[in-house]
Amino acid sequence: MTSAPGPAQAGPAAFTPLIEVRGVNKHFGDLHVLQDIELTVGRGEVVVVIGPSGSGKSTLCRAINRLEPIEDGTILIDGEPLPEEGKGLARLRAEVGMVFQSFNLFAHKTVLQNVSLAQIKVRGRPRAEADTKSRALLERVGLAAQADKYPAQLSGGQQQRVAIARALAMDPKALLFDEPTSALDPEMINEVLDVMRQLAREGMTMVVVTHEMGFARASANRVVFMADGRIVEDRAPEDFFSAPESERARDFLSKILKH
Amino acid sequence: MKTLTDNWSTYWDGFLGTLALFAVSAVLSLVLGVLIAGFRVSPVRPLRVFGTAWVTLLRNTPLTLLFFIVVLGLPRFDITLPFFTFAVAALGCYTSAFVCESMRSGINTVPAGQGEAARSLGMSFGQTMSVVVLPQAYRSVVAPIGSVMIALAKNTAIAGSFSVTELLGTYRTINELGYSIIWTFVWIAVGYLIITLAISAVFNLLERRVAVSR
Q1: Best label site of A70, A126, A173, A217, fewest CB within 10 Å?
Q2: From CA A55, how far away is CA A38, in angstroms rounded?
Q3: Residues B137 and B109 sit within 8 Å (Cβ to Cβ)
């Protein structure tokens, strides 16, 4: 039922693939959580992955930088296959930023140290240079004044914006968002979405797993709908939301868009 | 008191011997313990297997038996070292198994997301452990490691039976000179108390320090 072949043929001629997921399968015990997943994300594209819980969308997102190991299939980042482990994997991960549902800021480091740490340890930048870049990024997400606080002293929305700054500090080729607003109080969701919308406008390649349909409609180039471990639909947002092709997607949308 | 003053130099030598055994073994066990704990949580299977085997073997062997193995076994492979070195090897390796398990339980208190965030930024396993996970595990391992260190200080007594000068062994010399066995042991106990209470104090201090650093 996968909407193969990938959208590479459907896209414009200038489409250059940055993330390629080819025939990926994964089980959690008996649960076939990813089934023959085919997905291509072009440079500068914003792909929003939606679907009911347990559909495998978070697992797919985490598999792209191999926080979840996969059983078969290949994943290419900018043409390079993702290695199993070791230095090569670490190097490719540095190119793909990740933003988590639970923020995962380093609890024992200040906001500034959180953003600078990997720049220093992985990119080998001198501390002063890293800190300058970190402060500029914190300014950009509106948190320059919080640089010397610890994560626990910030609100959820602020922590998530720091997490985005931390991912951006590595100058990644793409960013993965794993339900970035699901753990937030409603009034904080927008401050995070604002930052994400801005990134989308600036041409950052993004894969976003979310339940924020407004963001999907406004900022996504494509919407990927997953159910039961499969990609059921992979289309432009206006097509998907106005005329979903599959029964599964119609059912899902009727449940979440009714109010 | 006469027992102590008459035999001051014997007691003092024994006290220093115990202190030296403890200090060198403690450093060895902490270094090995942290290393083996790293092995046990590493993504590399052979290292995990090695770590598990190390802990299982050393934690479940009586320390005296371990001393026999080291002191009588190693010379058969033409490894002849001073008794002090043998004793440190036995004590350090034995204690490292306990240090490792304390470290590992501390590592498990750090949320998995911390390590995932570090890895997603391209940090290696070593960097993830040393920069992100271990510093956060540290605060919850101070107390159990303190207990392990106190046990180590007392375990040094076994070395006395293997020709190493240490505090407990002094009773033989002093007893042969005809001093009261009770008072001989009372002063030995005081010597151990000085060491173990000092270890407690150091670890209490460390615990208070990590409590405020957040």
Answers
A1: A126
A2: 15
A3: yes
Query: What pLDDT was estimated at residue A74?
Result: 93
Compute the distance between CA of residue B184 and CA of residue B4 in angstroms, rounded to an integer.
8
Pairing of strands A222-227, A46-50: parallel
Model pLDDT for residues B6-49, shown as the tens digit of each residue: 888 888 999 999 999 999 999 999 999 999 999 999 988 999 99
pLDDT attached to residue B9: 86
Contacts of B146 (CB under 8 A, 6+ apart): B199, B200, B202, B203, B204, B206, B207
Closest residue, chain B, to A169 (C-alpha):
B121
Angstrom distance (rounded) from CA B120 to CA A167: 9
Which backbone phi and psi does A95 adopt, to 5 degrees?
-90, -10
Show the low-confidence residues of chain A (pLDDT under 70): 1-14, 258-259
Whether residues B122 and A95 touch (CB distance < 8 A) is answered with yes
Asked if A91's CB is within 8 angstroms of B121's CB, the reply is no
Report the residue of chain B nearest A152, measured CA to CA.
Answer: B214
CA distance B31 to chain A (A): 23
* Residue in chain B nearest A116 by alpha carbon: B121
Q: For A213-247, what is each residue's pLDDT tens digit?
A: 999 999 999 999 999 999 999 999 999 999 899 99
- Cβ-defined contact of A117 to B119 (cutoff 8 Å): no
Look at B136 and A100 and tell me if their CB atoms are within 8 Å.
no
Written as one letter, the residue type at A242 is S
Reference B142, options B203, B200, B96, B208; nearest CA is B203
Percent over 90 (pLDDT), chain B: 67
3-state DSSP assignment of residue A49: strand
Closest CA of chain B from A236, distance in Å = 29
Write out chain A residues lying below 8 Å of B121, CB-based: 93-94, 97, 117-118, 122, 166-167, 170
Q: Please name the residues in contact with B56: beta carbons below 8 A apart, sequence gap of 6 or more.
A: none
| All structural domains of chain B | 2-210 (1.10.3720.10)
- Residue B143: name the closest of B212, B208, B207, B214 by CA: B207
pTM (2 d.p.):
0.83
Nearest to A170 among B122, B124, B135 (CB): B122
Strands (E), A16-138: 17-28, 31-42, 46-50, 72-77, 80-81, 96-99
pLDDT at position B7 is 83
